[in-house]
Specification:
- By secondary structure, this protein is of the alpha/beta class.
- The strands form five sheets. Strands 3-2-1-4-5-6-7-8 form an eight-stranded mixed beta sheet. A seven-stranded mixed beta sheet has the order 15-16-17-18-19-20-21. A three-stranded antiparallel beta sheet has the order 9-10-11.
- Strand 5, helix 4 (129-133) and strand 6 form a beta-alpha-beta unit.
Amino acid sequence: MSQTKFIVRKVAVLGAGVMGAQIAAHLVNAKVPTVLFDLPAKEGDKNGIVLKAVEGLKKLKPSPLSNKDAVNYIQPANYEDHLHLLKDCDLVIEAIAERMDWKADLYHKVAPHLGEHTIFATNTSGLSINKLAESCPDSVRPRFCGVHFFNPPRYMHLVEIIPCLTSDAGILDNLERFLVTTLGKGVVRAKDTPNFVANRIGVFSMLATIANAEKFGIRFDIVDDLTGPRLGRPKSATFRTADVVGLDTFAHVVKTMDDTLPADPWHGLFKSPEWLQKLIAAGALGAKTKVGIYKKEGKQMFVFDPAKGEYVGGGQKGDDGVKEILKIANPAEKFKKLRESEHPQAQFLWACFRDVFHYIGYHLADIANCARDVDFAIRWGFGWSVGPFETWQAAGWQQVAKWIEEDIESGKSLSSAELPAWALAADRAGVHFAEGSYSAAEQTLIGRSTLDVYQRQLAPARVLGEAAQQLGETVFENEGVRAFTTGDDVLVVSFKSKAHAIGPDVLDGVNKAIDIAEDRFKGLVIWQTEEPFSVGADLQSMLPAFMAGDMASIDAMVRRFQDTSMRLRYSQVPTVAATQGYVFGGGCEFAMHCDKTVAALESYVGLVEVGVGLLPGGGGCKEFALRAAQEARGDVLAALKDYFMAIATAKVATSGHEAQEIGFFRKGDPVVFNAYELLYVAKQQALALAESGYRPPLRIKGFPVAGRAGAASIKGQLVNMLEGNFISKHDFFIASQIADVMTGGDIEAGTLVNEQWILDLERKAFMTLLQNSKTQDRIVNMLTTGKPLRN
């Protein structure tokens, strides 16, 4: 008998604090109507607390909302008047303060109002799920579990599901399906142990870093310089992360470990240092109070020095020699050098790694179901590019285990606890293998989840040591692209260039792929094996011709780019762009010319060429001029103005939804919340178009443009901006060129032109700008520093 499909029609979130409000925001991003509850306000509108929280969502940066209208689908409610609304909710998520007694009181209040099939979940970050379940009536307990989102909920991939002893297995599976596909999350099933998986290990790592910084006398700003991107971790590194999380929140999580883990061999570490307590007492709570471990005065950054008990000038960097060691690609060699170095910063870094390895090795059996869950939890919840077990395995399991043992024996480790026998086994090569990842509790390898929802992830997240075979069968490959198939009549093209920039090899590859797809396949999908989709044209590849003054060959390359965009538009098979990450410049132009775009929610889209003193030369200006003409109700210029501003100000959409609002992508094209499902959805779209008798669009014979009068109107506004010093003279020149192209050039308003007419104008203006010395300065600055130049 087939299983009844689980549908989430409506969700309630209990608690409109920071987490509750942002969970509600992400639910409505996903078009899930959400009721947001809090206490009744003492004066004014009884929903005042929730209304204030909803207003706050609109001001947060980065925005928890993926489009400006989403917030309208959050329904404010209070516990006094609206508990009856709970019966229509398929999922209720409690997200109030971390107090067992407050949560128990709330459960008694809401339980009688839950629907008979409603899943009831708590977003606690560390309290016992089984203990909380005791406050639920017997009828609710099978439907109760923990569902721990990470902050900020829109952007952090991890959600931990924590079953209690009474949780129904089918309920947990349904919740996982919803979290993975609808909300786009990476789910780890955690055990009901304090702080679960990610916070238990991630916070331990921060505490070990703090302890070792003190032991080796390393300043906080130097710690952050060494423990951020140089280790494949977020820019906020260690101490800045504590500021972002909130020093009070960090201290609360530490206290939870102190209170609930008395038998942990590292228990002595689970204390907020005295300096941290003093900062909290002084109201210096981090980013939310604008002062914490760091504070900014004017342009000067200061950092707290615990030895002096005061702030000192910040910005100090790690030792160059130590940073050279961190650049070593071979992990075994890198750790050997760190361990052998006598420099305190190298000893500090080795100690931080060693203590985390020691901790996860000792605790794997009681914290997680298997080593893969630990690595995914830390990657997805704390933003590490490589998980701690993966790092240990890559550095040589046996050698690292021996070093840890030596450090335990010599008293260098933060604990004298011995590594478990499984970690020291003579034949142990690691914890991740093709067949699965090691479970210390079950002493066996555990394979990946077989839940149906994961069949949609054609290229799922992998851990080091898993079989990482290349996806699909290669049909064609050159220096720029790989075109492959997984046997379903769709040809998939992936770029091989750095940041998937589009140069001559990519253009040749895409054209060849279109030839092959038209000959042998039902559709073509452009999809990258990892983000970004594309940062645009490869300016570096133009440099040789540029230096030689060979403008004819650059002109030919721009023409080739435009022709490729047009081939994507008029190909005999449907073309689909599957975007995620940056979709800039030429990457955006390719996506705009495909029949459909399937955008990951976190697609950041823009025609950003003005940043290097150019205009979109691959069909972007033409496409916006055409769309304006198609949307105009007798007034092409009015329809064009927003499109012009999007290009002239290099406007970037900060989500797939916003890309549709601005007009880069078409309204109604799918936005996929889980980037690992992107390829599956894109191929389904291509096949659906093919199966419905796809024919390419008919070439447009003529569409009206705003002409020289339209250009003059736009330039009049630009003059005002120039005279008000809002733009530079070169900005004015670039924007004027864009206006001339998008309005069709020196012709009468309303004149009908074809696409090639605008493309020719676009290419001519591109070449004019390329030969301008100020544009050349912008290009050189971008290529050397990676930053735009305003001149």
